[in-house]
């Protein structure tokens, strides 16, 4: 293993939520552990929250019907959506090269063997397949973003 590979592993572990990482190859063993000081700073990048106009509700009064119906509709729609998740820690790429079109975008029909993205881990480029048949509704990560194991990448409306 080259020093560049070790540095890449350290970087990926450092940027992930993994507390401990162990790797063994050809008799060489590497164990990485994070120190937890309890006073670290966590930075989260989140989309801005939608602006909701408050409705006047007096004590003991239930929310109006449109608000309750929208909540039910959102819950039903989220049940229909399948999440394609990252099978590993790595860097998300939407296309095979910087000047290529993305593999998929919202509205793209996919089948179980459709390649939807690439996740690079330790200089290996892993093609990620849709694993369901349906239509891509939303891409949840940005090109070049570091992703965690199990992190949702796409929402798919299944057929």
Quick overview of this protein structure:
Helix content is 18%, strand content 32%. By secondary structure, the chain is of the alpha+beta class. The chain folds into two domains: 3-33, no CATH class; 78-158, Beta Barrel (OB fold (Dihydrolipoamide Acetyltransferase, E2P)).
Polypeptide structure, described:
The protein is α+β, with helices and mostly antiparallel strands and 159 residues long. The chain folds into two domains: 3-33, no CATH class; 78-158, OB fold (Dihydrolipoamide Acetyltransferase, E2P) (Beta Barrel). The chain is built from two helices and ten strands; from the N terminus they run H-E-E-H-E-E-E-E-E-E-E-E. The protein has helices at 3-15, 65-80; strands at residues 20-25, 28-33, 81-85, 90-93, 109-110, 115-121, 124-129, 134-139, 146-147, 152-158. The strands form three sheets. It has a four-stranded antiparallel sheet. It is elongated. Mean pLDDT is 77; it is low at 37-52.
């Amino acid at each position: 293993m080259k020093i560049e590979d070790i540095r890449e592993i350290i970087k990926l572990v450092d940027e992930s939520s993994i507390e401990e990482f162990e790797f063994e190859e050809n008799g060489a063993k590497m164990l990485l552990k994070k120190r937890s000081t309890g006073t670290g700073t966590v930075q989260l990048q989140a989309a801005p929250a939608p602006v909701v106009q408050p409705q006047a509700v007096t004590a003991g009064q239930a929310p109006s019907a449109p608000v309750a119906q929208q909540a039910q509709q959102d819950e039903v729609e989220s049940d229909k959506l399948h999440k394609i998740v990252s099978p590993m820690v790595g860097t998300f790429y939407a296309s095979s090269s910087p000047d290529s079109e993305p593999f998929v975008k919202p509205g793209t029909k996919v089948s179980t063997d459709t390649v939807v993205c690439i996740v690079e881990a330790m200089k290996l480029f892993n093609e990620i397949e849709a694993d369901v048949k349906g239509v891509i509704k939303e891409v949840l990560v940005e090109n070049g973003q570091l992703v965690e194991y199990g992190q949702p990448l796409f929402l798919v409306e299944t057929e």
